[in-house]
Each structure stands twice: as structure tokens, then as C-alpha cells.
Q: What sequence folds into this?
């Protein structure tokens, strides 16, 4: 009888120790940085009074990532490559037949390349990695 009563008491008892966390962080992310980058991040974390891990988590949640090149920009670069090939062909033709015979076509190709470069250079994204 005493054993049954003790068993009931032990079932009702709370387990000791630290309470379980609601969110368990069990994945590790390793990031390689230069010494300068490490000092920069450590300084920013210190200013925010956060640990490096907490600062990285907060920065990752707030970060806005843009693709290096959008599909439209990639198409523009392919088109620019094709125009460069045309310009090379015109230069070869100019060497063979003389510059005056292909002057208009060269000027037209250069104007088209300038327009394309202007469109590509209108990017408003700012990054130190570019």
C-alpha cells in the first residue's frame, strides 16, 4: 500500500533542472570571413549589445537579398555579347574594304551598344561586392 502511494506522489512531482526551451537551435551554420569582416561584425554586435550569434540571426531576419543579375539583365548581356560579335565582324570588314564603306553600320552598332550599356548601368542596387 505504501508503495502505491509513493508511486502516485512521484508521478505528480516535477522533474528538476532547467526548463526546456520552446525553440531548440540544433543546426550549426559555419561562415568563413576575413579578419576585417570579423572585426566589423564583432563591432556591430558589440554596439547592439548582442552576441555574434544573436546579431547574425537578427541580421538574417532583416536582410533583403537581391539576385546579382535578374533574368532581364542576363538577356541584355547576351544581346550585348551578340552586338560585340557584330562589331568585330564590322571591324574586320572595315580593314578589308576600308572604313568609309562600313562607317554607318559601325556607328549604328556603337549607338545600339551604348543604349544597351546605359540600360544595364541604370541599376539602383548598391553593394560593395560588385
A:
Amino acid at each position: 500500500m505504501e508503495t502505491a502511494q509513493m508511486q502516485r506522489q512521484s508521478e505528480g512531482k516535477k522533474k528538476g533542472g532547467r526548463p526546456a526551451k520552446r525553440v531548440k537551435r540544433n543546426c550549426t551554420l559555419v561562415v568563413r570571413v576575413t579578419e576585417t569582416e570579423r572585426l566589423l561584425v564583432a563591432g556591430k554586435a558589440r554596439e547592439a549589445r548582442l552576441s555574434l550569434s544573436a546579431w547574425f540571426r537578427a541580421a538574417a531576419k532583416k536582410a533583403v537579398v537581391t539576385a546579382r543579375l535578374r533574368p532581364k539583365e542576363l538577356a541584355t548581356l547576351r544581346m550585348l555579347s551578340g552586338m560585340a560579335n557584330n562589331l568585330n565582324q564590322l571591324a574586320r570588314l572595315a580593314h578589308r574594304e576600308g572604313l568609309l564603306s562600313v562607317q554607318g553600320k559601325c556607328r549604328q552598332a556603337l549607338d545600339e551598344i551604348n543604349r544597351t550599356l546605359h540600360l544595364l548601368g541604370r541599376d539602383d542596387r548598391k553593394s560593395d561586392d560588385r
User: Anything to note?
Assistant: The radius of gyration is 32 Å. The chain has five helices and no strands.
